[in-house]
Amino acid sequence: MKIISLQAAGPGQTHHRKPVLRWLAGLLMLVAVAPLLAAPRPLPSARGFELIALGVNGGLTDGDLSAWLLRAAGDRHYLGLDAGTVLPGIAAGLRQHAFDDFMATPGSALTRQGQIFTDGISGWFISHPHLDHVAGLLIASTDDTAKPVYGLPQTLDALSRNYFNWSAWPNFADRGPAPALGRYRFQPHVPGELFPLQGTQLQGQLFELKHDRMISSMLLLHEGMAWFAYFGDTGPDQVQGSHCLADIWTALAPLIRQRQLSGMVIEVSYPDGIDDQHLYGHLTPAWLLTELHRLAAAVGGRQPLAGLTVVIGHIKPSLRAGHDPRQLIERQLRQGNDLGVRFVLPRQGQRLWLPAPPAAHQA
What's the pTM? Predict the structure, then answer.
């Protein structure tokens, strides 16, 4: 077996040192992240968030599109975060034992998948109304139970106008063309407003994102002093000509300084090499790392993001032979990661346990 020496390079050897250190950093990141994907169930006294990937892709594969479930430790109910794929994602989670501690209702006539869908999910947050973020909700709405749907006013208006209109789909909302069946209770919130997520221990706050020509959104969630950020689709500020991400980094900076942010979900749709004009409001590894450096600058201090968990979603598959965007994105993030961030790229159906940072435990 080849042994790689980590001793200081002598004269003429400095060009070997950076690759070795980057290789070691990447290896340590993989070791650190592994427990997140294969974590034991949290102890009853634990604090943090359970995250289940219902769908992780950003297009093409209609059974694996952007959707997540999140709940705080000790909470029975999940909050749905986007809904590109729902029932196939629950089925994938059941196969991988992601729902082993979900308490089913005794005597129910529903399957376990049906119980998780109808009773285990307390409501839905929709970051923006693109089809790859709502298709699962639409298709399964015929069998869903009455739930709130949270989002920006313009997002919920688009859901009503374009989908729940008795043309594209029956009107299961509580507004729009009659008869409004009222299965989904639209709960619009403006950016900055703090609101409770019904049926859970969570509270939320919305921030605007710029996604090409559309307004998308980020939901900042917290339970006690533990916080988690979920990003809908977003382009980098510099390309979008906006300050949306800069405003969010300003808001997250004190949470990171106080060691209260458990992590975030954010998109990386394409590998590096895509022209900015063809990003269409999305991120690449290089652009995400650029934005995370801006976050680090807002936090201040030495290696302020070291250990921060950043979950990557919305990867766009490719039909090109021999081209694996997921593998490329993972490698490019690892190679460019000089921040000590823990990047996690889960597969559909996987469960992640994101413990609250120490300061949140002490609060």
Answer: 0.89
